[in-house]
Amino acid sequence: MTNYLDFEKPLAEIEGKAEELRALARQNEEMDIADEAAALDRKASEMLDELYGSLTPWRKCQVARHPQRPHCRDYIEALFTEYTPLAGDRNFADDHAVMGGLARLDGRPVMVIGHEKGDDTKSRIERNFGMARPEGYRKAIRLMEMADKFGLPVVTLVDTPGAYPGKGAEERGQSEAIARSTEKCLQIGVPLVSVVIGEGGSGGAVAFATANRVAMLEHSVYSVISPEGCASILWKDSEKMREAAEALRLTAQDLHKLGVADRIVKEPRGGAHRDSDAAIAAVGKTIETMLKELDGKSPKKLISMRREKFLDLGSKGLAA
């Protein structure tokens, strides 16, 4: 069953009426509603194209947060084989907001790491809604170090509102852990590619996405702060999130122009949540393409490319 976003309510009404007609026809085989249902389907299809053809930045935020959007676990299960999860930071605990381990991508051994939000109430609480604590970033550091030691490419899947801001996380060195994870991304001598599959929130996302290649799904977002948080700071009113979303330039299209994102992965009609299989397949092809672009490059070259990429950030947009 599709969960409709606020701006999709007119679409929900049309698709709901079409489904009601089909339900009546199933109950009464003598009813002929094929033409009426087909007309509603055409109208719904046109409305879907219209809605998703001109999404505002705020609506893109809503799509990026859609509860039925495929999450990290879905991508790992569909794209990777022989996945062996690795747990814990060998210091404090295992953070379930971050999952990762050894796997194969089309037969190629890799290390995959990502944020996992969960897909129901129980799993969302367990995964802390994808908001990692210090031990999550230290686990990621441990896995990146292992990948570097054994010469394995690293694939990261970013989907987090941001790092967890709780008292315990701060006491255990949240900002230091994020900085160390970002630093480790810059240090490893193996290919590192990242895909923003939903939300890329603040330093919590940067800690995974300081990569040789960064891709973003078409309706994903990536910013230093959430629109609600930005609105609360600038206007003292979180209801001004629409204006904040515009100002933050957080869409994949804006970030591609600025050079923050290297490529945009096209989503199925109506967003990744309407056809998860197609979205996951598109991301898989993009990851394979990005890894092939980095094949044959020495550790020294990979590190140099990564550092230069982030030192040059913004110059593309400024020059324009």
Observed structural traits:
alpha/beta; 320 residues; 2 domains; 2-enoyl-CoA Hydratase, Chain A, domain 1; single chain; eight-stranded mixed sheet
Description:
The chain is of the alpha/beta class. It has 2 domains: 6-54; 61-319, 2-enoyl-CoA Hydratase, Chain A, domain 1, CATH 3.90.226.10. It is 52% helix and 16% strand. Strand 2 and strand 3 form a beta hairpin. The model has no long low-confidence stretch (mean pLDDT 91).
Topology readout:
Layout: H1 9-27, H2 34-53, H3 57-64, H4 72-79, E1 80-85, E2 98-105, E3 108-115, H5 121-126, H6 134-150, E4 154-160, H7 167-171, H8 174-187, E5 192-201, H9 202-209, E6 213-217, E7 221-223, H10 227-234, H11 241-248, H12 252-258, E8 263-265, H13 276-294, H14 299-311, H15 315-319
Parallel strand pairs: 3-4, 4-5, 5-6, 5-7, 6-8
Antiparallel strand pairs: 1-2, 2-3
Helix pairs in contact: 1-2, 4-13, 6-8, 8-9, 10-11
User: Element order, helices and strands?
Assistant: HHHHEEEHHEHHEHEEHHHEHHH
Radius of gyration (Å): 21 Å
Per CATH, the class of the largest domain reads: Alpha Beta
Helix content: 40-55%
Proportion of residues in extended strands: 15-25%
Write the CATH homologous superfamily of the largest domain.
2-enoyl-CoA Hydratase, Chain A, domain 1
Total of DSSP H or I helical runs spanning 4+ residues: 15
Assign an overall shape.
globular
Distance between the termini: 44 Å
Biggest sheet overview: 8 strands, mixed
Q: Could you say what the CATH topology of the largest domain is called?
A: 2-enoyl-CoA Hydratase, Chain A, domain 1
Supply the number of structural domains.
2
Using DSSP, what is the number of strands?
Answer: 8
In CATH, the architecture of the largest domain is Alpha-Beta Complex
